[in-house]
């Protein structure tokens, strides 16, 4: 319930940090986080207007907060966090058991994700390149 009131300062400070930062990948990621926070702010503000209880009613406040974690009505920030978590799990699964890794970046829907190319992937690419040369 208090998210719109509390996140205003965070958004302002994040914007300032993005302007001052010279690291492009970090800036891109923070811009996406800021955008999702603003979407979440609007979403919760709209839902908050339709409530008929007071902030002192703790049980009602908790049920209001929990309602955004169900599958029907997820807040934009919860949805974004779940998507990021799934992508990170996928990336960690694909890299299990590899000792030597090379980092590279892939842009996906305006986001930059760090991905790792495995040692096995490098060997496979070399073999394919050699086959093409032989032909």
UniProtKB/TrEMBL annotation:
Q: Where is the composition biased (Basic and acidic residues)?
A: 126-135
What GO cellular component term, any one, is given?
Noc2p-Noc3p complex
- Specify where it is mainly localized: nucleus
| Nucleus listed as a keyword | yes
Q: Name one GO biological process term.
A: ribosomal large subunit biogenesis
The keyword Transmembrane appears for this protein:
no
Taxonomy, superkingdom = Eukaryota
Give the span(s) annotated as Disordered. Answer: 97-135
Q: Where is the composition biased (Acidic residues)?
A: 97-112
> Per the record, a Pfam family?
Noc2
Q: Which UniProt keywords apply?
A: Nucleus
Q: Which residues form the signal peptide?
A: none
Where is this chain's protein located in or outside the cell? Answer: Nucleus
Write out the similarity annotation: Belongs to the NOC2 family.
Q: Protein name, please? A: Uncharacterized protein
